[in-house]
Amino acid sequence: MKLCVIPARGGSKRIPRKNIKLFCGKPMIAWSIEAALQSGCFDQIIVSTDDAEIAEVARQYGAQVPFMRPVALSDDHTGTTAVIAHAIDWFAAQGQMPEQVCCLYATAPFVTHVDLLNGLQVLAEAGCDFAFTVTSYAFPIQRAIRITEAKRVEMFNPEHFSTRSQDLEEAYHDAGQFYWGRTSAWLANKRIFGPASAPVLLPRHRVQDIDTPEDWLRAEWLFKAMQA
Fold it and tell me: What is the Cα 67 distance to its own chain's centre?
């Protein structure tokens, strides 16, 4: 069984009710649910939430909510792996042990069904534990600077002050959309950012963290431009 788990707790603080706040005409979570449905690669698409309103919105858009997430797994400090492991354990108790599980974030409106299918293909062909979306930094991280307590600047890597940008190794970061993983890897709490994981590369224009109101506005502008 291929399982899609969309974590969506109700306690978002920086953007209240973020998971179901309207984004370009639909609740934010709806975009992830629709991409998962369009991919056709999942036997079950569920939302793991502690919130009754989020659960109802998720059902309206085609996801299942077979259980409510325990309070102990719904605070600010609970990691993704624990939430996915809880979902796996619940299905195992029903006699439906999944083989591959995709953690799909509720705040990933730029994810597409093609991305999800590509992730599954990478997981299968690379023989890895995890496959997840990444994108490149727009600026060489080796030339990053910090602002000191004295309100001055200094380089993180001053040895690269004179290095040409084209001579620096390109760096990538987590795109924050989804993580395909093998059930055994999720349950073993294996490290996602490590040599047992493979990348699903995305262009930078389809990646946007949405953690602040400013992020939200930028994401909507970008989304509308892409639709146009």
Answer: 21
Q: Where are the beta strands (DSSP E) in the chain?
A: 2-7, 22-23, 26-27, 44-48, 100-104, 130-136, 145-147, 153-155, 172-182, 197-201
Give the integer Cα–Cα distance in Å for 155 and 192: 29
In a domain, 169, yes or no: no
Task: Tell me if 179 sits within 8 A of 103, measured CB to CB.
Answer: yes
Distance CA 152, CA 145 (A): 10
CATH of the domain at 27: 3.90.550.10
What residue numbers bound the domain in which 28 lies?
A: 2-133+174-227
pTM of the model: 0.94
Alpha helices (H) in 105-227, listed in sequence order = 113-126, 183-187, 213-227
The single-letter code of the amino acid at 208 is Q
How do residues 29-78 score in pLDDT, each as one tens digit? Answer: 999 999 999 999 999 999 999 999 999 999 999 999 999 999 899 888 88
